[in-house]
Amino acid sequence: MNVERSIDIFVSMKNIFKTPIVKTLLIIFIGINIILLSVNFFLMPWYVKLPEVKVPRVLGESEYSAIQSLTEAGLTPILGDTVYNDKHAKGTIVLQKPKAGEVVKEGRRIYLVVSGGEQSVYVPLLRGKSLRDAKFALDRIGLKLGEVNEQPSNTPKDIVIDQQFLSGTPLKKGKTISLTISIGSEEGNIEVPDLVGRSFAEAERILNGMLLRVGQVSYQPSFSLLPNTIIDQYPSRGTKLSEGDKVDLFVTKNVETTDEINLD
Predict the structure, then answer these.
(1) Beta-bridge partner residues of 232
(2) What is the CATH number of domain 52-115?
(3) In terms of CATH architecture, what is 120-182?
(4) Average pLDDT, whole number, for the chain?
(5) CA separation (Å) from 210 to 218, 246, 247?
(6) Distances (CA, A) of 46 to 49, 76, 77, 109
């Protein structure tokens, strides 16, 4: 019975080892052991026998100089990230790992971080913005508002009409930008006369003599004033205009007149 039982167990185990899953596991197990043995008997002794070197200091050096120094020392320089730093010149090494002075195996990788210098930003489009919005846009990206000049224009007051640098220009953070803002239409040197109470013909003659023009004419019925009498004007008396500007007039008409005459 014992012999037969042993034979049955042997046959069962043999069949188990023939299954695909078990075969795969055996291959993996054997492969791992071969790798471990290779590392233990070949790679590790080779690595241990490698000469050791002291990592040189390359902080502050240029990329080229740092790579040359590390290569000559038997190490492998690896350029990593670039960081923006206004305290270090562009292209110089700001960090090395392992650090200078550490003793490592020959051929060890030394990772280097390079300075990108002071970071630049791009000038935004400021024309058409209010002075307040323009200052906010500059502050947000690290630029500063410089001198603000004023200039008359047809653009509404306090709107930026010109900027020192074109949009898209790269500048260092902290740089100032001068702006020109509108103060509205330039005040002329012709003072608008008082036309109220005068006839339309007289008012037109006065305006023409002052190099001004009649603008929009609006007729309104009146029971107390003669037809074609000026009862109001815009702009009002005393306003400063420029040559060729218009003055709108409000003129009486006969109450029986139903049609309005536009003399503009």
Answers:
(1) 250
(2) 3.30.10.20
(3) 2-Layer Sandwich (3.30)
(4) 82
(5) 22, 11, 12
(6) 5, 18, 22, 17
Q: Please give the Cα distance from 134 to 72 (Å, whole number).
A: 53
- List the strands of the sheet with 213-221, edge to edge: 213-221, 246-253, 230-234
Alpha carbons 13 and 215: distance in angstroms, whole number: 113
Return averaged pLDDT per consecutive 10 residues of the chain, 264 residues in all: 52 59 70 66 55 90 92 91 82 91 90 87 91 94 93 83 91 92 79 94 95 92 90 88 88 66 41
CATH of 190-253, one of 1.10.10.10, 3.40.50.300, 3.30.10.20, 3.90.950.10: 3.30.10.20
- Within the chain, strands assigned E span 52-54, 76-83, 93-97, 103-105, 109-115, 120-122, 144-151, 160-163, 170-172, 176-182, 190-191, 213-221, 230-234, 240-241, 246-253
In the chain, domain spans? 2-49, 52-115, 120-182, 190-253
Same fold, 52-115 and 190-253: yes
Q: What is the pLDDT of residues 115-126, one digit of tens each?
A: 988 778 899 999
CA 100 centroid distance within chain: 38
Which residue has 């630029």 as its token pair?
Answer: 143
Q: Which residue has the tokens 């900027």?
A: 163
Per-residue pLDDT of 94-108, as tens digits, reads 999 999 989 998 889
What value does the CA radius of gyration of the chain take, rounded to a whole number of Å?
45
How long is the chain?
264
Q: Please say whether the beta carbons of 73 and 108 come within 8 A.
A: no
